[in-house]
Design goal:
The protein is an alpha/beta fold and about 300 residues long. Helix content is about 45%, strand content about 20%.
Length: about 300
């Protein structure tokens, strides 16, 4: 089995999603703690500019976005499956909805002045302002719409009541019977809400949801050891990018293999990564780039919610 290296920080909701994915799989991994805001020099040396958290490194291959990280972990260890047979489309669609729509509600509620104010008050004023500026830049330029706190407060009860009703009536302990990526994609948003005492009752006061949430958090994080950023870069430097399965390749219309391209998220965190398009299939885009410190690196992105463009 390959050595799995997660670049993350503990307060990130999507990093919690990745940690639960690793725990669900019962995998061992190495933990590299990255800064919560730019600059992130060691991370961007690996990714070529992609800045969102988390990132999974396997040697000289880097996997961006938890949607693709989930699929990489399924390839690493098939059982238990994150995408159960016969439910591949429905659990992936639900996970995508949770990572976008439910996440929008969580962000809107967390970033209310009455909640962020006390958090930021513990920081020096210049650090607090830098954090807010960083998050403003992160959510600028993409397609992810921003909800107001008022909208989120109005709409969240609808989402929670629907979930509660399904859990009450469904067979089994999870959203679609067997546990899947859908459960983890929803639960990490609730973990984010529960990180704030003012918002925790939204989950805790609904017994069916609270019990389901506890079951998902029970997957744990697997087993991990700390690793420094420099050690992770050294691992990338000494490794060769993985050979790609050409029999599954699915070309990108209008772009030849080896052509210079940029790839960027379309929702938020839209920083482009430049390199050569060396592979794509139905789920992923792979760009090969060269770093002066690390040599050849392959950066993997999901095909959905990312844009690949011929370099100008």
């Amino acid at each position: 089995m390959s050595e799995l290296i997660l670049h993350h920080y503990w307060q990130s909701p999507f990093a919690e999603k990745a940690r639960l994915l690793l725990g669900f799989k019962g995998l061992a991994w190495r933990s590299v703690i990255i800064p919560r805001m730019l600059p992130k020099p060691e991370l961007t040396a690996l990714t070529g500019g992609y800045r969102k958290t988390p990132v999974l490194q396997v040697g000289a291959d880097v996997y961006c976005d938890t949607a693709l990280i989930a699929r990489r972990l399924d390839a690493e260890k098939a059982v238990p499956a994150l995408f159960p047979q016969g439910q591949e489309a429905v659990v992936a669609a639900f996970a995508g909805w949770a990572d976008s729509v439910v996440f929008q509600h969580a962000v809107a509620l967390i970033f209310q002045p009455e909640i962020m104010g006390p958090r930021l008050a513990t920081l020096p004023p210049e650090q607090a302002q830098a954090f807010m500026d960083d998050r403003k830049a992160l959510f600028s330029g993409g397609s992810l719409s921003r909800l107001t706190p008022e909208q989120a407060r109005q709409q969240l009860p609808t989402l929670l009541t629907r979930l509660e009703t399904q859990l009450q009536r469904s067979e089994g302990d999870y959203l679609f019977g067997a546990p899947s990526v859908a459960d983890i994609a929803l639960a990490h948003n609730f973990w984010f809400l529960k990180s704030t005492p003012q918002l925790a009752p939204l989950i805790d006061e609904r017994p069916e949801i609270a019990a389901w949430y506890a079951r998902v958090l029970g997957f744990g994080h697997g087993t991990y050891e700390e690793l420094s950023a420099e050690q992770a870069l050294e691992i990338a430097r000494e490794a060769e990018p993985v050979a790609l399965p050409r029999e599954r390749a699915l070309p990108v219309e209008g772009i030849a293999w080896g052509a210079p391209v940029t790839v960027a998220a379309t929702d938020y965190g839209v920083d482009p990564v430049a390199g050569e398009l060396v592979y794509a299939d139905s789920e992923s885009l792979v760009v090969k780039r060269s770093d002066e410190r690390l040599g050849a690196i392959q950066v993997h992105f999901p095909r959905l919610n990312f844009r690949v463009s011929a370099a100008s």
